[in-house]
Write a sequence for this structure.
């Protein structure tokens, strides 16, 4: 089962500004478990790429927050799509593009692990 | 029609400023850090602490002591009427229990607060109504020129407590706003004016990219830039073109990022500056203007009419001509502002509708047309002070890696809005 996880950065990831509660270890773990992982943020694309490079992580995608639809089109064979973030703009983007959505506080609990366990 | 407000030079014909070349910028200082927000805990990183840090840096820059300062002119919140640049709302208020529940030093910084915190013993004139930084410098120049004080500390606080852009929690809209705000008309107004511009002159939003990208590049060379400190990588055309629309045609990368920082300038007389450390930058003029739309919302016609008046007034007040201006720094708090100012002032011969062609040519620092060599707000964050500090340093020849290759003897800067702005003219010479 291919599941796509889209992470907002600021307010969501631990190295965001402000820091969020989703740790990079959680992200690495998701990658190791086979999730399709990338970022979807209002940060410039180049800034997102630099962030991932600094972590020595090669994301499956980077996109601007309003481009979730493009991400979905790029991975149109995935079975499920989730975005997580801390703003209403995150929630709106997820709804508009038929992504599941987790608030940043929910994402801190790694809800995607349950998807794996229930598979 | 322009609103007449006290000391401002906003009624035509303004005439040559009576203190032209007799008042100078003698020093500049900035807080070492430019933050996204206050953490709510660190008292050495409050807005007040940053203003004090900047004031000390400005005094060091000018080579003066606390005893030399006899005036403080500030803009308490960085905006008109003590409004703060950052959010004014939030669940955290008050921060402290009474009697320490004052916002002074946190969301705004008054002259009285600064005088007390810095223990400046000889201050005889204080004013906290400087509004935006251009108006602030204009007010300070007028105050010094009029003899109300001689060595004036001019701090400019840039507060952003919560790290958010403008939030409007109001549940009501009054006056003309009752016809626009309920429909979401706010920042979208700037997109509307830009759209009119693009239609009139056959251009589009993508053609803003060269300007914004260059501003980011310039800003990375300014040590107090938020981006230089926190996001030092290059900003690209791809980045700009993929920005989320805030309101069509205004993307997130046309909007400046609010930050928390402090800056301060020393304004004094040309005579007194002879004993100070830096080469003085002579203030040739300040002019102000404020307008209201002819209809419910601002249009391109309004915008071009207002900026034409501003440019004409500035030239009349300083005695300069477009070809006299070497360094030009028009505000970009929304990036789409700059073209209106540029075309109105006719810098480098740019006429209405030509700004995008101009910016598509060589606007690099080492080229012939280095507009906004400091990087503007797009390249530094919403401090606005780069519009004073960079022209000042360019004229003093101490802009470091940002130093332009062209002659830098006369500078003009203008901001904040096409509807409400002040223009300042600087020179290396009093004449």
């Amino acid at each position: 089962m291919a599941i796509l996880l889209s992470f907002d950065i600021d307010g969501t990831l631990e190295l965001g500004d402000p820091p969020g509660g989703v740790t990079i270890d959680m992200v690495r773990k998701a990658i190791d478990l086979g999730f399709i992982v990338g970022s979807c943020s209002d940060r410039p694309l180049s800034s997102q790429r630099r962030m991932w490079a600094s972590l020595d992580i090669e994301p499956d995608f980077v996109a601007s927050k309003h481009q979730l639809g493009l991400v979905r089109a790029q991975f149109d064979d995935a079975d499920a799509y989730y975005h997580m973030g801390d703003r209403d703009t995150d929630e709106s983007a997820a709804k508009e593009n038929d992504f599941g959505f987790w608030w940043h506080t929910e994402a801190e609990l790694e809800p995607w692990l349950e998807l794996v366990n229930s598979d | 029609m322009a609103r007449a407000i006290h000391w401002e030079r906003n009624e035509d014909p303004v005439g040559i400023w009576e203190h032209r070349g007799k008042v100078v910028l003698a020093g500049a200082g900035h807080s070492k850090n430019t933050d996204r927000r206050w953490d709510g805990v660190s008292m050495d990183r409050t807005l007040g602490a940053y203003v004090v840090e900047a004031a000390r840096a400005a005094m060091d820059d000018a080579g003066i002591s606390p005893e030399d300062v006899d005036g403080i002119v500030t803009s308490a919140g960085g905006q008109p009427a003590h409004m703060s640049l950052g959010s004014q709302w939030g669940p955290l208020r008050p921060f402290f229990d009474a009697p320490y529940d004052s916002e002074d030093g946190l969301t705004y910084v008054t002259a009285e607060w600064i005088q007390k915190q810095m223990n400046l013993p000889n201050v005889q004139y204080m004013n906290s109504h400087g509004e935006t930084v251009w108006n602030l410098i204009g007010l300070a120049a007028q105050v010094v020129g009029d003899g109300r004080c001689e060595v004036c500390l001019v701090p400019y606080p840039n507060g952003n407590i919560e790290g958010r852009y403008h939030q409007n929690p109001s549940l009501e809209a009054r006056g003309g706003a009752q016809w626009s705000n309920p429909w979401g008309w706010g920042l979208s107004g700037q997109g509307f004016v830009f759209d009119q511009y693009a239609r009139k002159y056959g251009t589009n939003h993508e053609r803003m990219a060269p300007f914004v990208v260059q501003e980011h590049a310039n800003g990375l060379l300014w040590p107090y830039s938020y981006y230089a400190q926190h996001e030092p990588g290059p900003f690209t055309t791809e980045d700009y073109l993929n920005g989320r629309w805030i309101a069509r045609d205004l993307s997130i990368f046309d909007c400046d990022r609010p930050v928390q920082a402090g800056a301060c300038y020393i304004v004094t007389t040309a005579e007194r500056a002879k004993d100070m450390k830096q080469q003085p930058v002579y203030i040739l003029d300040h002019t102000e203007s404020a307008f209201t739309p002819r209809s419910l919302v601002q249009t391109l016609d309004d915008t071009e009419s207002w900026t034409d008046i501003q440019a004409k007034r500035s030239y009349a007040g300083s005695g300069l001509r477009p070809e006299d201006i070497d360094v030009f720094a028009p505000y970009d708090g929304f990036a789409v502002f700059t073209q209106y100012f540029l075309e109105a002032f006719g810098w480098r011969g740019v006429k209405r509708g030509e700004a995008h062609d101009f910016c598509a040519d060589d606007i690099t620092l080492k080229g012939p047309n280095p507009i906004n060599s400091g990087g503007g707000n797009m390249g530094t964050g919403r401090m606005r002070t780069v519009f004073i500090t960079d022209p000042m340093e360019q004229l003093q020849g101490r802009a470091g890696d940002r130093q332009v290759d062209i002659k830098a003897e006369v500078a003009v800067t203008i901001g904040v809005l096409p509807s409400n702005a002040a223009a300042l003219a600087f020179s290396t010479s009093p004449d």
Observations:
- Strands of chain A lie at 3-7, 36-41, 61-64, 80-85, 100-103.
- Residues 3-117 of chain A form a domain with the Rossmann fold fold (CATH 3.40.50.1000).
